[in-house]
Design a protein that fits this description.
Blueprint (H helix, E strand, L loop, with lengths): L7 H33 L2 H43 L6 H5 L5 E4 L5 E5 L4 E2 L9 H11 L11 H13 L11 H9 L7 H17 L2 H11 L1 E3 L2 E2 L1 H9 L8 H9 L13 H9 L1
Parallel strand pairs: 3-5
Antiparallel strand pairs: 1-2, 4-5
Helix pairs in contact: 4-10, 6-7, 6-8
């Protein structure tokens, strides 16, 4: 039967049904879309989205932090390298040419006089220094002397932190025996962080040239003990009337205690100085 020949009411009913089906499909699609959007906006999905954003931000900040750290490390290494390149290491001649006391003897070999200029010093070898005297100096001045390589990393780190916290001012003692020896035999007395870097470099260099026993020997022969005494031998004779090799434990401890503040702890000055020496 031809479509045009269908009764009008049949055709209208068919078109109405088609429209109803189409409307129904549109409503279903709309409902499905709305349902999907609703699912995307649930607290769980919002949390995931925020987590992804937070992770991206964290990665950006981490990248920036690492980049700045690398740049900063490069600058610091460049500055240190420049200072080290301009620093001369210590020669062994500087250790051997210390001013020493000369002695005058009569024809029978008896000492009749001693002569010295600005520093009264008598050299002693490491073998002449009692073990308890060595231990006393190491315990007070540099407890890790026989294990470090010129710089005590632990003490140095503490000194650096203190220096930063105090805005460039610090009395935190971090110098090793090797560093103190370097400071005593050079004319580099500048109070600045650049000098400290030069001192570190020279200390490490000296440790590569000498044995620990040689460094210790040079140290105790070089330093000032107070009351005009340079070196442990003159100090032993002056304060206790005996050679270094004859010092007992208490005397060796007293000699070691004088090193940091020789004039303040000079027992010949006053009772207060004697007490400070005992407190050390």
């Amino acid at each position: 039967m031809d479509k045009s020949n269908k009764p009008l009411n049949v055709r209208l009913r068919g078109e109405t049904q088609k429209r109803n089906v189409k409307s129904s499909n549109v409503r279903k699609a709309t409902k499905k879309k709305n349902t999907k959007n609703t699912d995307n906006n649930t607290p769980k999905n919002t949390k995931k989205k925020n987590k992804k954003i937070g992770w991206k931000i964290f990665r950006v900040f981490l990248f920036v932090f690492i980049a700045l750290g690398i740049i900063g490390a490069g600058i610091v290494l460049g500055v240190i390298s420049g200072i080290v390149d301009d620093t001369e290491s210590i020669s062994l001649d500087e250790l051997e040419l210390l001013p020493q006391t000369s002695f005058v003897y009569d024809k029978d070999g008896n000492e009749i006089s001693s002569l010295y200029d600005s520093e009264n010093r008598i050299m002693v070898s490491f073998d002449e220094i009692p073990t308890h005297a060595v231990n006393a100096v190491v315990a007070i001045e540099d407890e890790r002397f026989f294990t470090h390589h010129g710089i005590d990393i632990k003490r140095t780190a503490g000194a650096v932190v203190t220096y930063i916290i105090n805005g460039g001012e610090s009395d935190y003692g971090a110098s090793t025996i090797t560093q103190q020896l370097v400071k005593n035999i050079t004319s580099d007395k500048e109070r600045a962080w650049q000098r400290k870097i030069r001192e570190w470099y020279r200390a490490i260099s000296l440790e590569n040239k000498l044995e620990k026993n040689q460094i210790f020997e040079s140290y105790v022969n070089t330093i000032y003990y107070g009351d005009g005494c340079y070196g442990i031998e003159v100090a032993s004779n002056h304060f206790f009337g005996k050679s270094t090799s004859e010092l007992n434990i208490a005397e060796a401890a007293a000699i070691a205690a004088m090193i940091q503040s020789p004039e303040v702890t000079n027992p010949y000055k006053c009772d207060v100085a004697t007490q400070k020496l005992l407190d050390r």
